[in-house]
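Appendix B. Chain record.
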Amino acid sequence: MIDVNALHIYTDGSSCSSPRRGGVGIRFVYPELMNKEESDFEPNGYRSATNNQMELMACIKAVKIVSKSTELQHVSRIIIHTDSRYVVNNYKRAVYRWQGNGWEKRAGAPVLNADLWKELIRNIKKVHKRIEIEWVKGHSKDEHNKAVDKLAKKSAKKATNRLQSYVDVRRKLSSESVECGSVKMLGQEISIRMITSEYLRTQKIWKYKYEVISPESTFYKKVDIIYYKEVLRTGHSYSVSFNTNNDFPQITNVLCEIEKKDLIP
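Structure tokens predicted for this chain:
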């Protein structure tokens, strides 16, 4: 049952490829006492953005609108509705665990999108009101959810912004899709080709998507995620050694860069 005395904010994030871009959609459904029609927002989208990043950004922009609105200062209850399990399941972790743990998970692996989580929490504090985040089934019969889905897709078509965290991308050679954990960390030496690179500013570490190019490896052509403290160039291949922690896969040492002429076709 919807609380007619609360401010209901519906948000959605969208991401599409070729080229990668994302957008956000927001709808405000005001308390009955305000006697005001819904307000829709479809700000310009973001280049190279993932769906999770846009789901977070939709919440951030919605909260910013609230903090700057004088007519909403008297609202006592604010509920953000999102179809993102990622946002709903991790919001309390971000507030109560991650920000006090250096934005690292229990095994030491970095929390992804930490800069956006920090921005969301920072802006929620500015509102000085309790904000609840509730899940709504995506692509359901909910008219407001369907509306913000359309707004987010329109926003993605106007992708003129960039997130602070930029992902450098090269085309992969493998026909495999990325699967986290598909390459086991066995302390092995292995040859890999870097597909994407992203610097995680909060944790001061690089996140890479890579493909295994060692034909003799059990994991040949597998595509996975790895972390490393140093810069490696996308589209380039390296002989490296891995650690033994599957919960926090890392490159421990770069043995050498592999020249193109030395690659096995």
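Further analysis of this model is presented in Appendix C.
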